[in-house]
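for the recovery benchmark. tokens below, seq after
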């Protein structure tokens, strides 16, 4: 077992697609943690979705044993982190479990939005940052330019940067030697009481909840009673071990170690990510710093296409919740879509991943409603209500004000795109705070935007305007009062709750018209006219009419007096009038799918 001075805990942070997982693969190879015959690309990305999309969704710890040039044996505990802004909470927890961070920058693309965000997270956690300029063997690599960016944007001396290519294996030994020399030994190890950080957890059908942990002080052994410090939940350790890269059971997790523990807790909801574990017999006086509850930012309804699949969906979301602490759900019903669940997600990518996993892993056909955010409604009688579903918005006469979440957004973009991006920000009710010139070709724009305005297609528009070179990062700022209204869609004078949304009053007209146009294209004709209306309260702001299907009642009249035809047409007209009064419109399921997918 290595001494505390021979343990190094670090993670790899970078913008999405800058080579984190490829570097992890090379480190596994270089330390012989995985034999050549067992090696495959993206080894630590175990999900099919991670492999297909080339992104990391879950943190993946692994223990590496390395012998330095001087002949000393070291234990490296590496935590591979996600790069997308939606999973920044997981990145912050992973950083809290380390003393150092390898900051990876693509030699061709340079510093991007998440590079800056993750570097700031590491700096705030007081970690030692080890800069690595990756992909130096690419024809488009510009090492001198990226080195200058490191100095200008992140204030990191360019001479500290290691030049590497994770794909080709260039500079891997230099990185490992620098980890030994520049990343400090495990911190806070001198405290006598046991303090262990939970930075992730998964559910196993045989073992129950498996916590991914970092031991800061003391140690953990099998059979030891433990205490979760945030809510005083008691448990007993059933197994401890390390990842190499599969689970490898050990007798003890020592001070400074990273690994897993299996307890007698069977529900992931009882485990809080970022919580501190201590021994029940000699509890620690205070928790490790930085614990905060993970808060979902985006909400949407998920419904089965076939209503008989509701129980199957209920089982599926329950199982998925066991492996994803950030995903929350509660049952809800819709007149149009039947029974389903209101689900909370960290962001739009997180929502996309969850829905895709439900489809693949549980073989479900599902539909999701518009994503929305949590609004705070102040009523006239002084009550504060949190609304995540437009259907639950109180009567307008009882509302004093509605507040919506605003976010701080940092956008990295080429200089020539600045005009179009500022126009996009204004279009989405945003305010540009200030801009920073990074170099002669790139700018950084700081702005405030309503979270609701970036949910659907903001990132797509950003990529389109900047020809793929733009990137963004955001964090929650505060709630602000806004002139928000509930937009209802009425079909034949009946409100359809699945199409309801909360929008800004200035945008209600255009959104209402667009929805009415779309429904006019999609809804099938009936034997009577159908009015499709967009309304705010009792005021109709947009309308389309689907004309009635007409049977040619005069087809059987071959000549004769015109009054014969008029008599038949008048009879048809009277029948249609009667039908309109009592006619009900059944909206087919595929109409909901088409509207919800295209808007």
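predicted aa per position
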């Amino acid at each position: 077992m290595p001494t505390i001075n021979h343990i190094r805990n670090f993670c790899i942070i970078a913008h999405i697609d800058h080579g984190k997982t490829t570097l992890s693969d090379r480190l596994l190879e270089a330390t012989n943690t995985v034999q050549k015959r067992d090696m495959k690309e993206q080894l630590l990305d175990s999900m099919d979705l991670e492999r297909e999309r080339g992104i990391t969704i879950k943190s993946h710890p692994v223990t590496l044993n390395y012998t330095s040039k001087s002949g000393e044996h070291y234990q490296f505990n590496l935590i591979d982190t996600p790069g997308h802004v939606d999973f920044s909470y997981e990145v912050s927890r992973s950083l809290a479990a380390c003393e150092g961070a390898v900051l990876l920058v693509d030699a061709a693309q340079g510093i991007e939005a998440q590079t800056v965000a993750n570097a700031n997270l590491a700096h705030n956690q007081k970690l030692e940052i080890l800069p690595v300029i990756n992909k130096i063997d690419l024809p488009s690599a510009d090492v001198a330019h990226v080195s200058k960016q490191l100095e200008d944007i992140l204030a990191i001396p360019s001479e500290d940067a290691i030049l590497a290519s994770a794909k080709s294996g260039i500079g891997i030994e230099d990185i490992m030697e620098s980890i030994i020399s520049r990343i400090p030994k495990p911190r806070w190890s001198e405290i006598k009481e046991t303090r262990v950080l939970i930075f992730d957890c998964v559910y196993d059908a045989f073992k129950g909840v498996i916590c991914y942990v970092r031991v800061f002080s003391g140690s953990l052994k099998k059979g030891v009673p433990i205490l979760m410090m945030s809510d005083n939940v008691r448990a007993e350790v059933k197994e401890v071990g390390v990842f190499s890269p599969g689970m490898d059971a050990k007798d003890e997790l020592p001070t400074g170690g990273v690994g897993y523990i299996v307890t007698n807790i069977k529900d992931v909801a009882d485990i809080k990510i970022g919580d501190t574990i201590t021994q029940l017999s000699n509890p620690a006086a205070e928790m490790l710093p930085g614990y905060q509850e993970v808060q979902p930012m985006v909400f949407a309804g998920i419904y089965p296409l076939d209503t008989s699949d509701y129980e199957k969906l209920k089982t599926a979301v329950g199982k998925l919740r066991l492996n994803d602490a950030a995903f929350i759900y509660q049952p809800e019903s819709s007149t149009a879509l039947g029974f389903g669940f209101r689900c909370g997600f960290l962001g739009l990518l997180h929502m996309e991943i969850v829905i895709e996993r439900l489809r693949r892993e549980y073989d479900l056909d599902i539909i999701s409603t518009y994503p929305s955010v949590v609004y705070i409604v102040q009523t006239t009688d002084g009550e504060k209500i949190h609304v995540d579903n437009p259907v639950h918005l109180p009567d307008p006469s009882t509302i004093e004000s509605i507040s919506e979440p605003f976010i701080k957004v940092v956008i990295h973009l080429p200089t020539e795109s600045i005009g179009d991006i500022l126009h996009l920000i204004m279009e989405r009710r945003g305010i540009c705070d200030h801009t920073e010139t990074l170099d002669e070709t790139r700018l950084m724009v700081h702005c405030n935007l309503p979270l609701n305005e970036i949910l659907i297609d903001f990132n797509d528009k950003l990529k389109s305007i900047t020809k793929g070179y733009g990137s963004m990062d955001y964090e929650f700022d505060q709630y602000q009062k806004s002139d928000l209204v509930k937009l209802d869609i009425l079909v034949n004078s009946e409100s359809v709750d699945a199409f309801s949304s909360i929008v800004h009053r200035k945008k209600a007209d255009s959104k209402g018209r667009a929805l009415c146009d779309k429904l006019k294209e999609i809804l099938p004709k009936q034997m009577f006219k159908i009015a499709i209306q967009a309304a705010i309260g009792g005021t109709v702001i947009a309308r389309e009419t689907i004309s009635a299907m007409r049977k040619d009642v005069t087809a059987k009249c071959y000549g004769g007096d015109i009054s014969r035809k008029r008599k038949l047409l008048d009879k048809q007209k009277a029948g249609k009038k009667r039908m309109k009064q009592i006619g009900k419109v059944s909206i087919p399921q595929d109409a909901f799918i088409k509207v919800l997918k295209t808007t």
